[in-house]
Amino acid sequence: MSYSVGQVAGFAGVTVRTLHHYDEIGLLRPGARSAAGHRRYDDADLDRLQRILFYRELGFPLEEVAVLLDDPDIDPQAHLRRQHQLLSDRIERLRKMAAAVEQAMEARKMGINLTPEEKFEVFGDFDPDEHQEEVEQRWGNTEAYKESQRRAASYTKEDWKRIQEEADDLSNRFVALMGAGTPPTSEAAMDLAEEHRQGIGRNHYECGYEMHACLGRMYVSDHRFTENIDKAGPGLAVYLRDAILANAERHGQEASDGS
Q1: Rounded Cα distance, 132 and 30, in Å
Q2: What is the model's pLDDT at position 193?
Q3: Distances (CA, A) of 90 to 18, 31, 87, 126
Q4: Do 148 and 138 form a contact (C-beta atoms < 8 A)?
Q5: 4 strand-pairing partners
Q6: What's the pLDDT at 71?
Q7: Arithmetic mean of pLDDT over the chain
Q8: Who contacts 182 (Cβ-Cβ below 8 Å, separation ≥6)?
Q9: Would you tell me how many other CB atoms lie within 10 Å of the CB of residue 151?
Q10: What is the pLDDT of residue 190?
Q11: What is the pLDDT of residues 59-68, one digit of tens each?
């Protein structure tokens, strides 16, 4: 069976002009001609065209494609093995490119739409991007982190300002309790700790009592958190931790402070 140039162009998704060019340069000569001199392609021609298009898709110049296809030492099976290897290599390169794009996307999510000026307006002198790499290393594989990133991707500057204002208001109320001498184990302090936990769940990720207790300990064990929290009032990080642990125990979660 043979096929016209128009049929082959339709099969392969190329133009008739392309097939004419391949014929003219000797890359793909049709196996026969009709009585009227029109090109007719057989199954062997289609196989060769398939290999040509494969190498072209991988970026090989036509001259190199011709050398590859006309090498007498390479049989059809060898071509398939070579194509498989080239495809595997390309898939791996594309996978790495996709991973790089994903990393770039993630890197933009904290303050996605925020300019440096806007980030300062929202967060003050605390830059969340500064700790992004460490956060990814420590929690990047957790569902909580992934959920937080999904939510952050949709937040605008106004959303971040609202979240920061809520956090500042909560800090101020904790400081007021401290100033009044109210113990962190009091109902009032535990209620604020519960509000703190619910705010994390509302704005960032689902935060159970065990996870909340872990966060509370980290606020004291990691001096960077301690220093940032204590800007609202000296000793707030410890007070917040103790209130969080007391609230966790109030809800049936064992939450020793590790001391």
Answers
A1: 60
A2: 95
A3: 25, 32, 5, 42
A4: no
A5: 40
A6: 81
A7: 80
A8: 188, 189
A9: 15
A10: 97
A11: 888 998 888 8
* Structure tokens given for 18: 């392309």
Segment 94-144, tens digit of pLDDT: 777 776 656 555 555 544 455 545 444 444 444 444 444 544 555 445 666
| Nearest CA among 165, 185, 170 for reference residue 239 | 185
Place of tokens 């959920």: 147
Q: Give pTM, 2 decimals.
A: 0.48
DSSP string for residues in the chain: --EEHHHHHHHHT--HHHHHHHHHTTSS--SEE-TTS-EEE-HHHHHHHHHHHHHHHTT--HHHHHHHHH-TT--HHHHHHHHHHHHHHHHHHHHHHHHHHHHHHHHTTTTTT--HHHHHHHHTT--GGGGHHHHHHHHTTSHHHHHHHHHHHH--HHHHHHHHHHHHHHHHHHHHHHHTT--TTSHHHHHHHHHHHHHHHHHTS---HHHHHHHHHHHHHSHHHHHHHTTSSTTHHHHHHHHHHHHHHHTT-------
Closest CA to 50 of 21, 95, 14, 7: 14
Start-to-end CA span in the chain (Å): 85
Find out whether 244 and 196 touch, Cβ atoms under 8 Å.
yes
73 phi/psi in degrees, rounded to 5: -90, -5
Query: Which of the pair, 53 or 129, is modelled with greater confidence?
Result: 53
**CA gap 195, 211 in Å, rounded:** 15
